[in-house]
């Protein structure tokens, strides 16, 4: 009998260490089983275990709700310029059938453009993290080899190119227009308009092709279960033919819950630093991304502006004592020329209306005082049912030096040639001595530094801006 002492037993591992080892072993086993189902492909750069049809489908579902709203509000924004009224309003010529939806823009409710454009710009910025996350989730598909395997595959790749390229183009040009007064080469209006139709067409084709698979992917995993799964228990999705699941996934450094939370937090932060420019009030101070600043000044004229008098090259002699308002009727052949004192002597009316800009910012309701456009039409022979009007400014630079307004805009009793705002004369930057203010019209259609009104005009000179 061997009486030599046996070696001391090894100390037992802690319970926590054993559980951690089991999780690592379980993860490796699942990855190994999945790898056996896939072709032998060398590890590539796209190894995140989060990638897969389910996460891609979650981001896609969010975009599927947001992008149609973005497209619809964009079309409404374009319609608000009344581009089919006059070529001088039409910054997107040769639109052809793409302008089928245009309709006379209403003046009721007076806040409609403020809401639709605020939603359009704010939603576009808020969706940026979701769009980037969606592109990250499908980036392996963009670099698959061979790039084209058949004619059908070539068409699919083309639609994907239009979808990704169109989406990036629309978001980039829109953000540049909002933040930097637009620095992209070419006119913003036609580029953004045509780009929206290309992107939306590619999106519709993509949805038609991928919606069944997206629905199956969303149903294949429980969202609540994923939101309860920590990083340590995060594993790749089962292998399939989508091309999204990595063949050789790396260990997880973030859970799907973390990825969704990170994207959601990014969108929330962008909302908080953007929405105040449209909502106004105290929230304006939170609008860190407001293109024209959170503090537009104080006093009666202390609300945002888009174009200063200096930027528009408004000369002092054009708005000084020699300023005259010319009111003309192209159909009645009557013409009236008024000094500023004579305009002030006409019946004055007030309107509480905001200013809303294509860039997404808007002011609260301002209290305007001036002469009704309908009363000015009556001076030149249109006492009832006044026609539309062609408005011209003294500004020497910039677009929208002149605009055409519809008859419904002229007839609205709140539509004014404003001389004062909030109890004070207009400041030079707000259009002194006179500007147009029309309910529900985009800011650039509320022409500043007005010097001529032509009622009933049927043809207009081409704007060379």
UniProtKB/TrEMBL annotation:
Transmembrane intervals: 54-76, 96-113, 119-139, 160-180, 192-211, 259-279
Oxidoreductase molybdopterin-binding domain sequence ranges: 321-458
Keywords: Membrane, Transmembrane, Transmembrane helix
Annotated segments matching region Disordered: 1-26
Listed Pfam families: Oxidored_molyb (PF00174)
InterPro entries: Mopterin_OxRdtase_euk, OxRdtase_Mopterin-bd_dom, OxRdtase_Mopterin-bd_sf
Keyword set includes Transmembrane helix: yes
Basic and acidic residues biased stretches: 16-25
Source species, domain of life: Bacteria
Annotated Pro residues bias: 1-12
Gene Ontology molecular-function annotations: oxidoreductase activity
The UniProt record lists the keyword Disulfide bond: no
Name used for this protein in its record: Oxidoreductase molybdopterin-binding domain-containing protein
Taxonomic source organism: Actinacidiphila reveromycinica
Higher taxonomy: Bacteria, Bacillati, Actinomycetota, Actinomycetes, Kitasatosporales
